[in-house]
Amino acid sequence: MTPAAAPADAVPVLTRPRRTVVLPALVFAALALVPAGAFALSAGYLLDLFTRVMIFAIAALSVDLLIGYAALVTFGQAAFVGIGAYAVGILASHGLTDVVVALPVALLASGLFALVTGFVCLRTKGVYFIMITLAFGQMAFFTASSLAPYGGDDGLTVQERNTVLGLPLFEQPLVFYYVVLVALLVVYLLFRALVASRFGRVLRGAKDNALRMTTLGFQVYRFQLAAYVIAGMAGGLAGFLLANATEFVSPAYMSWQRSGELIIMVLLGGLGTLHGAIVGAAAFLLLEEWLSALTEHWKMIFGPLLVLVVVFVRGGLIGIGAALARAAGRRGPRG
User: Fold this and answer.
1) pLDDT tens across 158-184, in order?
2) Which residues does 212 contact at the CB level (< 8 Å), separation at least 6?
């Protein structure tokens, strides 16, 4: 190798990991500073808005794990969010409001539902997988709607947020905000570690060519089932936090439309990037908030705009950012 060639070869190796670390760090730093901005602007509603953004970002991360890395397009992910939320609501109606009870139940219930349904769903492929996940999601939706003792179609009011070892910490908006931020960070780091591990490499290999991975000796079905259960439990965590944030649970949390919104969030941010799911969830909900304040017919603007972005912007918002960064680099000074 000539001396002149060495620096050029080293550039992609050095800059690519740095870029994938810097952008997520900036995203989490911005989220950490939201309370300070809300206080400075005397806009307390921003705290509630970004709490909701982070909760849906957790659910979007679970979708990105399945679609972006395992090529498992699911229209039933909202069911796990609803199960986590109903775990909080049903336990609260029986006087069980502590996190040490509610959180494990939410995770176990959503994980068990993912295990049972994934055992069936993952035996199908392509459009059949999409349809059967949709069917199981709707089954959960109609089951929740039929729970007359717990509100049925009208939903269930959660009288108070969960306590932490008897302490009402979740009742303080700032504390709850940072609890949600920490939960989002933990899920993001966990998924990032999974994707970078042998487990993630098998998922990505199966995404490209499942038959080849099978001939290499990997039991692809088991890896995909594990990913499905992990994503389901992440959805259950989002549901647990959502029930505490809104102090209300509803069958609408499980609707196929909500699952579709989660997919759009992922596509909007950038499929297969993880931090793109967070950016996409923020963009989706903030745009929705802004347009709904402008006109009551905001959905007529919102829908076509999302379709245009998803269809014509390859790589989502993260892809746009990367393209702009490359263009700026090409226009930069040359030594």
Assistant:
1) 888 999 988 899 999 999 999 999 999
2) 205
Residue 331 has pLDDT above 80, yes or no: no
- With 0-12 / 13-18 / 19 or more C-beta atoms within 10 angstroms meaning exposed / middle / buried, residue 264 is buried
Question: What is the C-alpha to C-alpha distance for residues 256 and 77, in angstroms, rounded to an integer?
Answer: 8
Q: How far apart are CA 254 and CA 235, in angstroms?
A: 11
Quote the pLDDT of residue 325.
Answer: 66
Q: Is residue 18 part of a domain?
A: no
Q: What is the spatial distance between Cα 114 and Cα 228, in angstroms, rounded to a whole number?
A: 6
β-pair partners for 156: 249
Q: What CATH number is given to the structural domain containing 215?
A: 1.10.3470
85 and 239 in contact (C-beta within 8 Å)? yes
Q: CA neighbours within 13 Å on the CB side: how many for 208?
A: 7
- d(C-alpha 253, C-alpha 174), whole Å: 25
**How far is residue 80's CA from residue 68's CA, in Å, rounded to a whole number?**
18
Q: Give the sign of the dihedral formed by CA 152, CA 77, CA 187, CA 21.
A: negative
| Token pair of 104 as six digits | 């494990």
Cβ 87 vs Cβ 233: under 8 Å: no
How many angstroms separate the CA atoms of 76 and 141, rounded?
10
Structural domain range at position 321? 43-331
Report how many domains make up the chain.
Answer: 1
Is residue 33 very low, low, confident or very high in pLDDT (cuts 50, 70, 90)? very high
28 assigned to some structural domain: no
On whether the CB atoms of residues 224 and 110 are closer than 8 A, the answer is no
Does residue 17 lie within any of the structural domains? no
Which of helix, strand or coil describes residue 94? Answer: coil
d(CA 253, CA 242): 9
